[in-house]
Every structure is written in C-alpha cells, then in structure tokens.
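Just wondering, does anyone understand these tokens?
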Amino acid sequence: MTRLLRRTLEARSNGITDIYRELGCFNPATKGAGTVTVAAAIMVFLTKGNNFRNLALKAANELGSDTDTIGAMSATLAGGWLGYTEVPQRWASVLIEKFV
C-alpha cells in the first residue's frame, strides 16, 4: 500500500486515466483489488478534492475501473474535507427525498 500511495502522490499532476493505468486499475489481475481501489480513491481526492461535483463525476465516470467503489470512497473523503454544503443542492435534494 505504501508503494501505491507513493506512486499516487508522485503522479498526481498526471491525468486520472494515466494514474489509474499506473496503479493497475485497468489490469484484469488487479482491477477491483482493495489496495489498488483505495489508492485510486485517494488519488482522485488529492487531484479533485477541492470541488465535490467534479470529483464525484470524474470518479464515477472513469471507464474501465472500479467506479462505484472509487467514487464512493473519494466522495466520502471530499465530503468530510469540504463539508455537506459543497454537495450540489440538486443531488442533496434527491438524497433527502429518497432516504429521509
């Protein structure tokens, strides 16, 4: 895990697709592996964590990767860092209607 996190930090100025490839997110042998998925989620948070909407969309729509898990983990990190008020109002309204 330390190696993956180091690679993530070193490559965070690259595009997300390049970093996913470097981490092994597209490789059938490692795609969906816990450590790779966690490293990818941390990478998305580090590169897109200043904007909740952009982070969630990028994480959830990156093709060929474990998008649901990476999206959930990175959005959780961003939500904790940025706070509830950064969740787009339309998204929050849908969640409130569905779960409250």
In short: The two ends are 37 Å apart (CA to CA). Residues 57 and 71 are 8 Å apart (CA to CA). The chain has one domain: 2-99. The mean pLDDT is 80.
